[in-house]
Amino acid sequence: MMMDDFHKASDTERMLMTQLFIDNGVDSYIFTPAKGYDREEGYYTATTRTRKEIVFEVKNRNITSDMYTTTYIEKDKVDNILRIAKETNHIPFLFFFFTDNKYMTVRLDFDTYYTTIKKLAPKTTMGNQTKVLKEFVPFKITRLSNTN
To answer: Greatest CA separation found in the chain?
Structure first.
């Protein structure tokens, strides 16, 4: 069965997160089903340092980390991660990977009001490319780490 672009992108994000987990001694994690179109990538528990449970979304950016000062994610995704985190008592995180082997981790905060901007963007990431007005949350590209 041929894999569509959405699932290829999802597989890349999962591969990057799996390597990050291995590199940081995370011994238990679960991704949402690969055949689904879930709004969150998955969950993990039991890191070697904290034993805190998190819920996360992963974004793989096709740019280097120094190309722009800001990266964006759909407001719906931020809202969804925060909702799930509240329901499950998990800590909400976003992971952004860049092409220069760097990544940025953002811990979301329940008490923060995240400003949004409206931009024309494809209706769906890999399917319907009709442009619609969507709300995005900007995040300054800071506190980068290197992937191994």
So the answer is: 44
- Partners of 134 in the beta sheet? 119
User: Model confidence over 52-72: pLDDT tens digits?
Assistant: 788 888 888 999 999 999 999
In this prediction the pTM is: 0.82
Q: Would strands 102-107 and 144-146 be described as parallel, antiparallel, or unpaired?
A: antiparallel
- Rounded to 5, what percent of the chain is helix, strand, coil? 20, 35, 45
Helices (H), 5-60: 5-23
Query: Which residues share a beta bridge with 74?
Result: 136
Q: What are the backbone angles phi and psi of residue 44, rounded to the nearest 5°?
A: -145, 155
CB 55 within 8 A of CB 40: yes
